[in-house]
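Incident log, support desk, overnight shift.

02:14 A customer reports that sequence design results differ from what the structure should imply. Their input is reproduced verbatim below. On-call engineer (initials T.W.) acknowledged and began investigating.
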């Protein structure tokens, strides 16, 4: 998994509207990248909605927000439209970005092991250097965790 001090990995994918998004698009801005397991599930919805509800506070601090999961573009679009998110959701069906950030990991649930996304938030400065990693994301307090220095 990426650590504090690591550089923003180079990536390219598409957002909920099928538009190309590259990591270099965010250089020069403070960036919050949050990884969530699955669109339209309770925890992921709580996290994404909390960030959206607090978007003005996050933007006031200079943050750009982007959410990433392995969902398809159409699933991301439905999720985005249903809740009116004011930030892009990136579809990473190839799991290339997930692996570059180190959030595609072996998980255990009810005695079963499987590969999945570990809910994690990364914060980068204007130079693309990771300044914080939030690995114990509280879905209903995601924005508060980001804003707490």
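02:41 Re-run completed on a clean worker. Output:
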């Amino acid at each position: 998994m990426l650590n504090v001090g690591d550089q923003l990995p180079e990536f390219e994918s598409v957002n909920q509207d099928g538009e190309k998004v590259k990591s270099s698009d965010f250089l020069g801005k403070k960036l919050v990248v949050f990884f969530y397991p699955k669109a339209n599930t309770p925890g992921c919805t709580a996290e994404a909605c909390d960030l959206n509800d607090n978007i003005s506070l996050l933007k006031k601090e200079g943050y750009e927000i982007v959410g990433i999961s392995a969902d398809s573009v159409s699933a991301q679009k439905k999720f985005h439209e249903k809740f009116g998110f004011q930030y892009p959701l990136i579809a990473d069906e190839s799991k290339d970005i997930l692996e570059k950030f180190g959030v595609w990991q072996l998980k255990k649930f009810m005695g079963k092991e499987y590969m999945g996304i570990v809910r994690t938030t990364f914060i980068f400065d204007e130079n693309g250097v990771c300044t914080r990693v939030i690995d114990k994301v509280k879905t209903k307090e995601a924005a508060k965790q980001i804003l707490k220095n």
